[in-house]
Backbone:
């Protein structure tokens, strides 16, 4: 079920500007539809546990991952479906993982918060806030030592700025000039608390303190994300060291699928504003049409294709068998 | 035994925890609570709902996601006049607080020759079967029980939760208080009046004569369920709940086993190098001449907790598992 | 038993560790070492002296004082092609690495359904009586032994140190390797040729028939000393060294106790909820029908390690203490 | 054996400028002589274990502690004798602690790295690098809640900039406007490694990132340290929030008393330069004489008095009894 679109490397070589931005559109739509189905599975009580949806933040994962090679690394978070899809994983095995099925990326052992996929360089989602900052930095360290030219992207929410280990590894990355990009997705909330209540000073200052290249961008603008990411990635690949990218964005749904009543921490107007005025897919669609890269029919066709793919993936996962109970104590040790 | 007092009313485990904290916040100005999303959100489990409204955001305080940092702040605040209750949302995040808890909180009193005190409570969760996978399902109380200077509490009923938590807040030492997140909705009798439960006093949750089931936290409910099933088979099980793994009421445990001659130790942490090891070793030593069979240990399976429901379910001891083991032991 | 091979030469424990690392660095380009003051300083204990000179500062790398950070880097580097040996100067600082070791390193393989591997070694120290006080004297190996996904090694001789460390570097799992800092100057035979010692295989350090002393790390030396004294009293002690607390060679331990009918378990960690609890529970279960006396546990006293020499000295088991306990047990 | 000089509060009220700076001189001399005796005790094998000497850094502890009230808090480090003396502890019980005697501040249980003294607000030395940053911040938190006007000083070496928890608590201190001052004593070395190999970016940037007031000063100039500290302390006491103070300084001896051969990590010339050109006691003596506050005879007299005090304290400690072995399991629980 892996499409060409899900493999950035194949596409990129031959791609024109137009193809590149159409592919970015398709990737964002796939993520949005994927998350809608996750919510659906939760509502229909088909999914065990909870999941944290990425809807609204698509331009960040897509803009960045489209600037990567397939063998570049990413580390992800509890809100990881978007990163995982953008890096090239296929929805069928992702859904299977979300449902705890043997066909899932982790044989059902990981679930939503731990999807990992060596084939696309995905070192794993992580259920510990800030838990993967060391891992991403370590991957960059290995890349540098092994001279394989790989770059590591470390995705995290602005809540992870509270974790001290981030500062420890940023210091090390800058000292050792490691090819790692710290991507802080500021969606304004740490769970149910506005980031201004948890964040003194500035976000970029946290990286500038270590002399690190640091840039803040509009995370709803997939082209801007992509262009800045491409520059920072090539800079890192060339041995010029790490960077920090702050992408301002918004999550449309609750902290997790069960977080329905949100008025006590954020207003409906705020949500509506972002969905209506700042939707990354809509903004990009407008641009594609304005540029003459596509008309709305073409975009609609892409959406329909993506929906077919995603719905097929759900069916696959729902029908897939659970792992045999004998597997429970496999994979503890390599 | 306090459980036999007239049950005026029933509360859930979560309500009992909240009431204990509300009463202590009211009683003593120096008590305060901090942690992630403890205020307006009242924690993701809604255990603290309503407290910020009564006590204000000066005393029920949201923090950034900085477990090591705010635990350290708790230690310092406890040394200098407050009685902080520090909230660690999932027991799995205790990993981030170990230095502050073990190298600082646990040792400050001793290292200072008894001069400084650290009257602080760390409230956190344990337990699996919530489909939360390996990083949100651990039961790490054995680590803390290993460390001199800490006290470790594992309530198994709403009644115990309230009484033990009030004791914890009033204790002059750092106390780690583990709540099973699957037990928050469990109901039980909780009296209106102020009461506390001393640490180091086990509670015989059910009397019996053929076998002793020593169980902690969530596993007390499993043991009680098993005891009911065993009764139908003519096996009389005594259920002993230590309530605190440190201090540990060795006497009550050993006396029970001396009476029954058989013991199963149940705990939701990993069995290996865990709470079951300590308790089994205590029994094997203390009731050496009375045991009719080796002490049986039942803890979490020695694997990271898997996400997939059928896998997760087999990692935790169940009533049926306990019944089978007890039946086997009593046959001999 | 490899110890009986012709001893070509003697090395100190520190030299054996260094030689193991030098050989592995030479054998495999992917092996690298990092930690605080590991390069020119060769660690405060001088264990790594000379390595940076041979292998360069690309492979033997000084870090800032960021235990959590560089442990995390070790995990990530191990997942992506290197075999890092991460140096944590004092075992007490492991508190800062627990999240990376327990929530990340130990679980990455399992959570990914077996896809990612973490071939990383964490070398650190344990042990008291160095007059280093409460934050530089702990023996925290029980915590790690409690966690599925980790392996835990406690060498007790130069020979074992070298062979086990080479195995650790070649293992595809995260391994925590504890060296007793008071043992670095201990000498013993170490062959020139390349050898490894498998994990999970206990070593009978001395054969005997009246009592089994199961001992780890530094306590093996104490047990051997006690065995000599006991021999003079006509008591024949067998000394069994598990060498790895996880995997644990239960069979060798239990078989020894079945033969001797008595056991003392010795470990420098705290006894409560520690390694002695697990091993005693294993023996009490496995040798239930053969034991003539309860298993005796001897660990560090349940207090933060005090600075004052006369106080510190009584917190750790000694030869004489073991002799007294063994004499008492064998009398019955 | 507590002298008036060791209680800053008593002296301060009535003190003239001249008295203030003479007292600062005396305090620095006492610390220097104390450390010389520690080294002596080690060399004569009278002291169990090791100790980390503060010689060379005296102006930092003294300049700051002279700006404090007796009931203000400090937290200290493995290199803590100077802080402890400057805050008002008496040398006799300190030496007793260093020798593991019952008369020591911690009944012998703490030793050099854990001296604590509630009477002078000393929350304790700490053998974990960065281990007390939370404690100091927590003390400030309690002061604010209890409205007792106390300020907390958090002393640490520049090596502690490697510990993530520092950033966690600085963020919190700034968010909550806590009365705490983070004092980074940059003596150039983390044990045997130069700080430039462990520190990316700038030191002040680490605090500025959180929007925190941050100042760098010459840590060998006791008057400058004192004046800046006084301003920051009063600012914190007035409720205007935390601050960060970088004091550049140098340790004269090894990392600990046993670190004799240091050429592999720093040169003799460097050591000589600091001792000859940058000695805080000598610099202050020159100034006192130039100002006419004292002549060299008066300063020499002070030194002799201090030496008498310190030597008496050593004698006391050497003669003092060890704790009874029965005490070993006291003080585990309160
Ligand atoms: C160390 C740790 N502390 C707390 C949590 C609980 N938790 C899960 S997500 C979350 C908020 C994270 O906020 P942010 O990093 O901004 O990511 P977002 O959810 O906004 O994508 C918290 C507190 C956790 N998983 N790990
Ligand atoms: C967490 C931790 N890691 C490592 C050590 C070992 N150690 C003790 S002092 C020291 C260097 C500290 O350097 P710095 O903070 O600059 O203080 P200085 O010794 O220069 O006063 C180290 C690495 C420790 N005590 N704690
Ligand atoms: Mg967020
Ligand atoms: Mg320094």
Residues:
């Amino acid at each position: 079920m892996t499409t060409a679109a899900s493999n950035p490397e194949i596409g990129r070589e031959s791609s024109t500007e137009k193809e590149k931005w159409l592919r970015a559109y398709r990737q964002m739509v796939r993520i949005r539809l994927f998350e809608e189905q996750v919510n659906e599975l939760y509502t229909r009580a088909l999914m065990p546990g909870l999941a944290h949806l990425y809807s609204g933040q698509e331009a960040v994962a897509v803009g960045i991952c489209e600037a990567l090679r397939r063998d570049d690394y990413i580390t992800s978070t509890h809100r990881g479906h978007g990163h995982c899809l953008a890096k090239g994983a296929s929805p069928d095995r992702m859904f299977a993982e979300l449902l705890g099925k043997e066909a899932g990326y982790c044989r059902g052992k990981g679930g939503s918060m731990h999807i990992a996929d060596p084939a696309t360089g995905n070192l794993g989602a992580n259920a510990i806030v800030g838990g993967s900052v060391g891992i991403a930095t370590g991957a960059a360290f290995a890349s540098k030592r092994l001279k394989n030219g790989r770059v590591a992207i470390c995705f995290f929410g602005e809540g992870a700025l509270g974790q001290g280990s981030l500062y420890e590894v940023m210091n090390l990355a800058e000292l050792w000039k490691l090819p790692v990009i710290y991507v802080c997705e500021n969606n304004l909330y740490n769970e149910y608390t506005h980031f201004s209540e948890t964040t003194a000073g500035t976000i970029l200052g946290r990286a500038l303190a270590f002399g690190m290249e640091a840039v803040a961008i509009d995370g709803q603008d997939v082209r801007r994300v992509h262009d800045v990411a491409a520059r920072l990635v090539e800079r890192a690949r060339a041995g010029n060291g790490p960077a920090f990218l702050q992408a301002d964005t918004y999550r449309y749904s609750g902290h997790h699928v069960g977080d329905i009543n949100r008025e006590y921490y954020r207003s409906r107007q705020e949500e509506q504003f972002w969905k209506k005025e700042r939707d990354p897919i809509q903004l990009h669609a407008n641009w594609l049409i304005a540029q003459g890269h596509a008309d709305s029919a073409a975009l609609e066709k892409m959406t329909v294709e993506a929906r077919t793919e995603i719905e097929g993936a759900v069916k696959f996962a729902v029908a897939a068998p659970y792992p045999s109970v004998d597997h429970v104590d496999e994979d503890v040790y390599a | 035994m306090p459980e036999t007092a007239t049950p005026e009313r029933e509360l859930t485990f979560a309500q009992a925890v909240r009431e204990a904290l509300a009463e202590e916040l009211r009683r003593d100005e120096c008590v305060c609570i901090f942690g992630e999303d403890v205020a307006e959100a009242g924690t993701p489990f809604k255990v603290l709902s309503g407290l910020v409204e009564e006590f204000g955001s000066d005393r029920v305080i949201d923090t950034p996601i900085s477990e090591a940092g705010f635990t350290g702040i708790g230690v310092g605040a406890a040394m200098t006049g407050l009685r902080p209750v520090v909230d660690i949302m999932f027991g799995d995040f205790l990993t981030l607080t170990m230095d502050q808890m073990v190298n600082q909180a646990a040792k400050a009193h001793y290292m200072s020759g008894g001069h400084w005190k650290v009257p602080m409570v760390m409230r956190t969760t344990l337990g699996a079967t919530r489909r939360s996978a390996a990083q949100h399902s651990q039961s790490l109380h054995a680590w803390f029980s290993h460390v001199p200077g800490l006290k470790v509490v594992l309530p198994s009923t709403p009644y115990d939760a309230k009484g033990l938590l009030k004791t914890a807040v009033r204790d002059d030492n750092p106390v780690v208080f583990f709540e099973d997140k699957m037990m928050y909705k469990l109901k039980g009798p909780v009296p209106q009046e102020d009461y506390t439960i001393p640490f180091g006093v086990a509670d015989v949750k059910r009397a019996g004569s053929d076998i002793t089931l020593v169980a902690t936290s969530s596993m007390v409910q499993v043991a009680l369920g098993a005891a009911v099933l065993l009764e139908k088979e003519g096996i009389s099980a005594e259920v002993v709940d230590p309530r605190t793994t440190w201090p540990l009421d060795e006497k009550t445990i050993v006396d029970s086993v001396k009476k029954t001659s058989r013991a199963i130790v149940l705990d939701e942490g990993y069995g290996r190098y865990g709470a079951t090891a300590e308790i089994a070793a205590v029994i094997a030593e203390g009731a050496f001449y009375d045991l009719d069979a080796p002490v049986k240990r039942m803890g979490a399976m020695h694997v990271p907790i898997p996400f997939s429901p059928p896998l997760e379910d087999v990692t935790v001891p169940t009533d049926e598992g306990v019944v089978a083991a007890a039946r086997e032991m009593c046959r001999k």
About this structure: The domain at 17-320 of chain D is CATH 3.40.50.970 (Rossmann fold). Confidence is low (pLDDT under 50) at residues 1-11 of chain D.
